[in-house]
Amino acid sequence: MSYSLLSFSNPKILKGRNVYSEYLSAILHLSPVNTKICPYQDIAGCKEACLNTAGRGGIIKKGETTNVIQEARKRKTKLYLEDRDTFMSYLISDIIKFDNYCKKKDKLPCLRLNGTSDIQWEHIPTKNTHYGISRMYLFQEYAKYFEGYGHPEWKPCKEIVDLGWREAKNIFELFPHIQFYDYTKIPTRKVAQYTNYHLTWSYSEASSKYAQYFDTIKYNIAVVFNGTMPIYYKGREVIDGDISDIRFMDKPNVVVGLKAKGKARQDMSGFVIHV
Questions:
Q1: For residue 93, pLDDT beyond 90
Q2: Residue 58: pLDDT band with limits 50, 70, 90
C-alpha cells in the first residue's frame, strides 16, 4: 500500500519496534526551510546539526546538490505551505491507511508528525472535507453516502458515523485512539488537553533566554550530548534515548539523552552539550 506523506523506514522509529513490539510507528518528514516549519531553528541553534541531513537524507552523490529524499521532503513542504487543504486530506488518508494496516497486524499505531519539522499541529485545523475526501478515497463502496456533501443541510448518515466520522478541530481529536508524539523546541506549547499527544522538549544552550526554560518545562527534556552521557543533568535523571524512539513510554521528569552523531559532534552553537 502506497502512502503520500508518511514513511516507515526511518532507523530511529524502527528501533522502537524492537523494544516495544506492540507498537508500529510512522513518521512525517518535511524540509525545515524556514521558521514557518521550524520556528525556533535560529534561537535554538539547531540548524547546522539538523537531522534533516542525517542518514540517507544527507547522502549526496559527487557533483550533485540534493538527493531524492530531500526533493521529496521539499515537495511535501511546498504542498503544506501552498495548499493546506490538499495536504491535510493526504495526511488523513495516510493515517487511516496506517491505522487499518496496524489493525490487520494486531499492532497499536503511533505517529511522529514532526520528524524534521516543529509544527504546532494542535493549531492546524482539520475539516470534515478532509475526512470525507479520505473516506471516499479509501472506501469507494461508501461514496454514495457522501452525495450532496458540502450542502448546508447535509448530515452524515448512520453508515458514515459507523465508519468513524467525527467532528474534530485538529488531527489529535480526529484520531483519539492513535498515540502521537514529537520533539519540540517551542517552550510555550500547551497540549495537556490532548492525552494522545506526547511532547519532549529539546534543550539548547545556544541562547541563554532559551536555556532558562529548562527549569520551568513540565515535559521530559531531550539533550544531545557529545561524550560520555551523564547519569544526571541539571538535577534530572538521564535515560538513554537512543535505545528507542517511542518517547511516550518514557517515565516522567527525566532528561532524554541523545548521542551527537555525524556533523553534530562538531557543533559549537550550544545545541550539543559537550561533556
A1: no
A2: very low
For the chain, the residue count is: 275
| Identity at 115, one-letter amino acid code | G
| Cell numbers describing residue 258 | 541523545
Q: Each residue of 207-264: pLDDT tens digit?
A: 888 999 999 999 999 999 999 999 999 999 999 999 999 999 999 999 999 998 777 7
Of 130, 212, 219, the residue nearest 181 (C-alpha): 219
Distance CA 128, CA 36 (A): 25
Number of CB atoms found within 10 A of residue 36's CB: 12
Which residue is listed with cell 495526511?
91
Break the chain down into helix, strand, coil percent, rounded to 5: 35, 15, 45
- How many other β-carbons are positioned within 10 Å of the β-carbon of residue 241? 23
Q: Is 272 exposed, middle or buried (0-12, 13-18, 19+ CB in 10 A)?
A: buried
What mean pLDDT do residues 179-186 have? Answer: 96
Helix (H) or strand (E) holding 59: none
Q: What DSSP string describes 185-253? A: --TT---TT-TTEEEEEEP--SSHHHHGGGGT--SEEEEEEESSPPSEETTEEEEETTS-S-GGGSPSS
Q: Supply the mean pLDDT for the chain.
A: 82
Among the listed residues 264, 275, 263, the one whose alpha carbon sits nearest the alpha carbon of residue 255? 275
pTM equals 0.81
The amino acid present at 266, given as its one-letter code, is: Q
